[in-house]
Amino acid sequence: MNRPDVYASTWRLPVIVWQCLFFVGPLLFMIAVSFFLVKNYRMQEAFEMANWSRMMTRGYFWDAYWYTLGLAAASTVLATCLAFPAAYGLAFKVSESTRRWIIFLLIIPFFTSYLVRTFSWYVLLAESGVVNAILGKLGFGPYTMLNSAFGTLVGYMTLTLPLVVILQTLSLANVNRSLIEAAHNLGAGRMRTIFTVIVPSAKVGLIIGAVFCFILSFGDFVAPYYLGGSKPPTLPILIIDTTKSGQQWPRAAVVAVVMMVTLLTAAFTAITMAYRKRR
Amino acid sequence: MAEPQIVFDNVMKRFGDAVAVDRMQLEVAEGEFLAIMGSSGCGKTTTLRMLAGLETPTEGEIRLNGQRINELKPSERETPMVWQSLALFPFLNVIENVEYGLRMRGVEADERKRRARLWLERMEIAEFETRAIDQLSGGQKQRVALARALVTEPPVLLLDEPLSALDANLVVRMQGVLSRLQKELGITFVYVTHSQSEAFAMADRVVIMSKGRIEQVGTPREVYRQPASRFVAEFVGSNNILSGTVNNLQSGELVVDTGLGPVAAVRPDDRELTRGQAVELVLSADNLELSTTEPDSVNRVACKLVSEEFIGTVVTLLVESPGGVELRIQKQQRDIDQVSLEEDMPLWVSWSPSSVYVLPG
Hints:
The complex is a heterodimer. Chain A is an all-alpha fold.
């Protein structure tokens, strides 16, 4: 190794050490824990398949798995579709300074704790909450919105929408304007231009926005717990429950490893799709 | 008589306070190859974009085949354009790019493929049908852009400096391709460029623009030999422009006092001149003769050589008169091969009165 290489690697070292100590290390430990045993409420080092075979054969695990996957997928589709018109407007219909301000405003939600933002939905969505009060005046309802998949999705949107809008806006704003003009010039109206030129051009950013939404929703504990009422449980809730009942950290680790594998697969597939080049 | 195919009737385009195109009157005949020329910011591209509907005129009317098109959306016009950047869709392959216009017009897939292939063959790029755009050379991309624009058989093709990204020898080849194509198709080409050689090589008529206004419209020869203004004279070619006052007026003949001394010229018959009037004369660099001995010509000046510049087969010489006036002279390289040029060497410059052009205005 020559000198400049040593210099550069020295600067890279902190990040690598940090990631190894606090990400890769714990991850490997978690995988190890999933093979441990619990006896008399005590964890024991072991290498047994017992936790895996137990979890993989339980109906409640698979119910939770498919429910979580379905909710996260719905959240991804919903956030992507809701964010797109907003991002399109920000990217193409407003001046650059307006866009900068709105992106700044979209960051503000992240200043408040996600937990606080989730709780504030209580006031709005409860049986006697603001939304039902207004609907009642109009002669509708009351509707049950909390403790349901709807409530969970509202929570997911609270978590992910600002981020998805920002990511989509940034990628749409970078679409080459002359491609859009060329589409119009060749006879494409506004809608067809969106689907035949703008979406393919901004594909990478749109997919990365969706990937983030999926990851955040799939792993979220707060929305399904407080707004979804834990019933049916999602995988993060299952993890909490498992650790609480009989100190089953190893079984919780199994759930966590399955979640990791699912997310890695989903993210890898999506990113591959995003960057896939035609020959 | 029917109106010309394209008419700009008193068209004005403002961006905020800036006037991009100023009260433009322009007519383009069907099947004409028209080049719009000017330096950057002169309004030539804005003019083209208004024709495509990508900009809306602030005032005035643009008519295509007698129909006002100001309000027509770009997608409703049959005025495809070839962009300077080409604007090919990078996420589509070659044939999909060419098919795009047909797809937007609801042409069926089989028919679309067939017509796109015909154009790929015509542009001699059929073998790249399924290639990605980023795997093509500059010239090949150019041909894809042309095929994509022409596949819908439009009445007009708009070209916005399409050759500016190509290297010199490819430019000449593509000029040939474009000229031939335009003649074969018989459709109107409106070609925006800042390059005089491109415009003069291909166009039937040239429009010279400056600061949003049309300075002159004419054949390349007219614009070159009879510039309508000092701007045009300076913009096209390598002209020497001399200011002077009319001294002697006779029928058919004119003598103007200039920094070079009295210059004899042919009296222009299309305008009135009076003694003492200030005029500007154009001496085309290629109309000046050079000799080492005193020539037998009415207009002759003893100068000394300042510099020479060699571009291919043409040499541009800069000489200085005793009065300090610099003249540019263009000669074929082979014409001056016999003379060994040295700096400060005395040279006689001469020209015939008929080659002197008196600028109007």
